[in-house]
Fold this sequence. Notes:
The complex is a heterodimer.
Chain A: H1 2-25, E1 32-34, E2 37-43, E3 45-47, E4 53-62, E5 67-74, E6 81-85, E7 91-92, E8 101-106, E9 109-115, E10 117-125, E11 137-147, E12 151-161, E13 169-170, H2 175-184, E14 187-188, E15 194-199, E16 203-209, E17 217-221, E18 234-238, E19 241-247, E20 258-265, E21 268-278
Parallel strand pairs in A: 14-21, 15-21
Antiparallel strand pairs in A: 1-2, 2-4, 3-13, 4-10, 5-9, 6-11, 7-10, 8-9, 11-12, 15-16, 16-19, 17-20, 18-19, 20-21
Chain B: H1 2-21, E1 34-36, E2 42-44, E3 53-57, H2 63-70, H3 73-83, E4 87-92, H4 104-114, E5 120-123, H5 128-133, E6 137-138, E7 140-144, E8 150-154, H6 173-182, E9 197-198
Parallel strand pairs in B: 3-4, 4-5
Antiparallel strand pairs in B: 1-2, 3-7, 6-9, 7-8
Amino acid sequence: MARLHYDLKMKARSFFAAALLCASLLLQAAPRPTKHATVELLSQEQSAAPGSEATVGLHFVLENGWHIYWVNPGDSGQPPALKWQLPEGFAAGEIQWPRPERMQSSPSLADYGYHSEVLLSVKLKVPQSIPAGQKPELVLDAKWLICREVCLPDHAQLKLSLPIAASSEKNPSTSPLFARTEKLVPKAMPRTWKTRALSRKDDFLLSLIVGKKFTNAQFFPLDAGQIDNAAKQHVQPTVRGANIVLKKSDLLVKPVTTLRGVLVVDGESFNLNAPVQAQAALK
Amino acid sequence: MSRLRNISLEIGLIIVLIAGALAVKVGAPAPGFSEQDSTGKTQKLSDYKGKYVVLEWHNQGCPYTQKHYASGNMQKLQKEWTAKGVVWLTVISSAPGKQGFVTPAQENEYLKSQNAVPTAVLMDPAGTLGHLYDAKTTPQMFIIDPQGTLIYQGAIDDRPTTDQGDIAGAKNYVNAALTEAMSGKPVTESATRPYGCSVKYGKF
């Protein structure tokens, strides 16, 4: 009788301990099922120091074939939008977009976006004034369009507690994802590289002067209505880099002064800002 | 027999794609066409010389199209502008089996249930007209002036979302272009990035 009572007490204690463990793991909520995807709000840090910068992100895992869009979605679609409700003194930066994929659904239509998985991260400023020990709650209202043959708008409100401590510590279970993603976010171009674009009748000739030959390059425009997204980008390797022929969009009615976007060369992605010159004389 | 049809469709599409590659640009003559509408009548662009013509690419399953129909916004535009003598042609370029494809009877039912009042609906399941105009999204709007020149192509308004709540505060490019053109002014925003779902062309 006494032994049965003891067993029950032990079981109750283990159950309680397990429940506590679950609760602490659920400091982050489990991935939320949405239309053809799951989303979760993650933090790179498991604790953040006052006055520090943390990194948080919206992690999408998409069903096979479904995609969401880049900041410039291309010919159709709409990029995800994030709206933060943050405690006093916190500030969230803009989405750090990983380099997109080019999605060509037909010869005349191309979009830019992501399949299977993507983390959209932002830098978060933690105020100096917040005391260690607090667990402020970050609230994110996210809206996005997810498509395959058809498009579905969707949205979610996600919450995340960020423990404040004397020092910032990375979360070992999420930091690999953040580190992988960071490599996919375009970097500033090396200062020795030069880019410029020549505006010709039907296209822009984008020149990369880098110091070595490139055979592989792809340009993703930040601004809509400048280049034809579906047209093939002809890459002409040169001794010092490459030239890329970018067909102009039919929507282009005003002169363009700068071609802005992402340049992917040899698997690495860079931010590009190329001044545009009009062709002086027709050959 | 069907293999021959497939080949001729392919050739037709290639010709159209090449023609399309000649580009549809504001300021240039709008490409002429001859298409069947949902009542079986043949509609030609040349029939409407001397009038403003609006082309509205449409897919009733697309959430962006639904935004403008569920709100009554598109119907309101159709009513107001056709009352002023504008010819409003809705175009459906969805291929059979794809979202937005409807039979003429289904489309006529839809028009009734939505109180939509375009001048006509052009049935374009082969995508010929879509490719001729290089239509990319639904909705996508083209405006042709009485001389047959394209004076606007692009989005319906400047709020590229699926939210009906965004219609009221949006700048409607169709209203702006037609108002300016009809008062003899140049169209200030003549080419904008269209927003919506991709047009569901068939594979070939």
